[in-house]
Amino acid sequence: MIRYISMAALAILATAPLHAAEEDTHLWGVVIVSADVSKDVVITMEGAARLTDDASRLGQTILRPSIGYKLGKNTIATVGYAYAATDPVGPASSDEHRLWQQLTFRVAGNGSGLTVTGRTRFEQRWFEGRDDMGWRLRQQLRATAPLTGKTRAVVWSEAFLSLDDTSWGQRSGLDRWRNSVGLSVPVTKTVTIEPGYINQWVSSRGLDRVHHIANVSLSARF
What we know:
globular; single chain; 11-stranded mixed β-barrel
């Protein structure tokens, strides 16, 4: 299993776009809390803080509540809202709002051995004080495999495809691409920590940007 997950990680990282780019180091922290409302309904609140500019300053915060409905044992349909406050170096800060719809599903495996899952998300994006709403598709594939005890190796890849052009700068086409390798470590029956590395390529009108991200995600399920 370790050999297969390592090969998958190398394959994912090898597919990242190779162009001249500006590079930066980030530190991201994510907390995800979810609770079952009923047998088929789950509510989730996600909060993220992202340190940018060589991890020296808070560049973005995101709040993402959602509600999901279990269509089957391994398939969940979700609708949600996201608020993203971005404070980049140089350009003006922005407040972004998103509505989104998502389908998560299992591609292969049973959750104990090598397991592959998918996540398809549509987003409708708009910014305060600006016209137009932009549409974006996000597609993620994620693979996990057992290591020692209950710890699992994790690799995933997610492509962001903008579906239209907007007056505030969104251009149709591949917007960004994230590829990650890491671990999933259960702390208790309900809490899991996932430390990992994310390589993010971002399309730009000038030089493209590449972000090297140390990411820590904490998930709690009740």
